[in-house]
User: Fold these one by one.
Assistant:
Number 1:
Amino acid sequence: MDSLSGIEKFHYHRSRLEYHSCFYVAVKLNQAPDNASLRSALEVTISKFPLLYSNAFTNGGNVTLIPLKNTIMLQDVLKPVDFNSLDESFNNYVFNNVAFDYEVDKPLWKILVLKDRRTLVLCTDHLIMDGMSTVAFWKSVIAGLNNSDLLGAPDSGPVFTPKAGLCKVQQHPYDQVPFSVLGLLLWVFVRLMVLLDFANLGLIEKVFIPHLASKDLKFKNYRFPQGLLDSAGGIRNDNCQLNLHISSPKMRLLLKNCKLHKVSFTSLLSAVAAHALQSISSTQVEGSCIKISVPMNARGDVQKILEGTPNSSEFGNFIKSGEFSRDLSKLTELWGTAKSLDEEMASQRYSNLSIQMTKLLNLIDVENFVQGKVNAPYPGSTFEITNLGYQTFDCGADDKYFVEDAFFNEPQGINDVFTFAVVSTPVGGLNCWLSYPKELQTDLQPAIAYMQKILDGLSSET
């Protein structure tokens, strides 16, 4: 690796400036694994993915991901915590207390173990993983647990030992994606803006961090960045947290409804959230246009463009941003909204324009870009929905270890007012953590009640 790519620089500076601590994906297993089996499974998993044994170091003026020089012991990445379940207090504990330092010989991830010893919470710096990377991590670990036969093996010891000839993190594939004609035009445009920016015209901020117009929806009781930052300038991470859970049988009915109307669950959830916001009193908001952010998995795009092997993009950050706008005053029928959003999502899913835009981050000062988002008068999106989809984690009831439930969540962020973090499993059904600022606890209650009522109705027998 020569240097971090644009998308990696964004995550690096956001974490370094302490505007993002970590995110997590947790699995609840059918039984508690012993430490000897976990140690063996982690050792195999770490050996497969160089990002798991690397940290960010400044090298020759550039920041790169370099393998660690120190041994990683099991206790370095496995930490028991005094919690019985994943609830609001646990979530805010994680996002306030679990963060990772750069420029040190320590990994950028760890696993928290709840008191039941069955619930394992992978916390990671966003620099080295996206949501689908955590799925790959857990698939590998659970496969290792199911293949282990370690009677009498030690329950502590190293899970990584540095040695010569270790595989290193490669340059991010986004940097190998060629510019399209539109991408080249954007490249010329941004280069011109960078040159003009020396005249302090502020063009970069105006284009990359557009301010909301008067028509855009803003909550009167949520002031930015006061609602995001504490007195010391760090993220507050004191959001209200609600799990919109749908059991497995009900989820099958809900997906059947989605299939009948030819929309994805992400499109439906976006539509439900949009219609729910109509129930908020007009005295509590300004404007009526909302902006919806939906991060999308770009692995298929990269493999198609570069004709690489699937493993080349299995681990790392392969996200592209989907952006959608709706005027609440013009929404009428729920499934109609879901259908129109689904069509737009499909269009953006098969477009690599977002990757082209991400490559432009290599041209600008990314640290200033991140700081500019915090200094903006309001977040760029009303809400974000990140859906990791339906995951079996390549295991089932016939295996010694299988996943009974899974959970995904992210900290209070600089891009959105509130967030939905979604993952589904065959046994546990759907868990969707809704995270929203304390200032909106009262204002959002009608919207939350609407979402719960609609999702329950759509997942019930008629």
Number 2:
Amino acid sequence: MNKVKELEVGNHYKAADIDQFLSSTDVVILSSNESDVFAHPEREYKVVQMFEGLFEHSSNDGEKYYRTKPAYVLDKV
């Protein structure tokens, strides 16, 4: 398993490497493979998009807030 420090758009990564990256970095991962993204550690995913942030809805006050937090969109290879 390689130590991934950054996910780059267009590159392929194994699920195990993405798991390690996610465990050590404050990011959001969205995958076309839904909840099975980490079911097979050797499966590869391509980073198809990256966003610098996202909007979240607060259940506390009903407002929407923009969060500066990297969000990566993955597609199963």
Number 3:
Amino acid sequence: MKSLIQRLILVLIVIIGLFLFWDSYRSTTIEVVFVEKISKNEMSVINLSGRERTIVVPLDLTDIIEVNKRYTVSYDKRILDNFKLRKIYANSE
């Protein structure tokens, strides 16, 4: 019984350690982009260098964001995860 409890504690520590490792490898990017297309769950953007990204959006922004308009976006990327939108600002052209 004691060895089973020790194994469960060890497994729990390993799981917590893996989660902390995954969460610590987050990169945040801020860039000026043009929105190419937008749906309820994601939007495709092209930055000023021509690199295309598909970013997961937390809300339905189809009524707010306009296609082919310039925005400043901030998004996160973690290991084995998609790009996720954190902030978006409209740019004046």
Number 4:
Amino acid sequence: MHVCVVFWENVLNGVFLLAELKKAQTKNMPHRTRPMTALLVFTGLNAILVSTITPVYDFVCFLRFWERRRERLRQEREPTLLKSSESR
């Protein structure tokens, strides 16, 4: 029982010290926090990224590389398909 009480006293003291430290840091903060500006910048960057993802996706997905690769793979598979159909 005594260990539990000591434990919780230490926890409360730690919380109290953290609160005091945070309060001291906010008094001596060298800059102002601007949550609205941060929110607007975050939203603006997300909007820009979302609007640019479609052209990038289209560019990557419709490269001629994929068409050539698909054709090469089809040509490599064709002989094996013919062999398996002939063996039946």
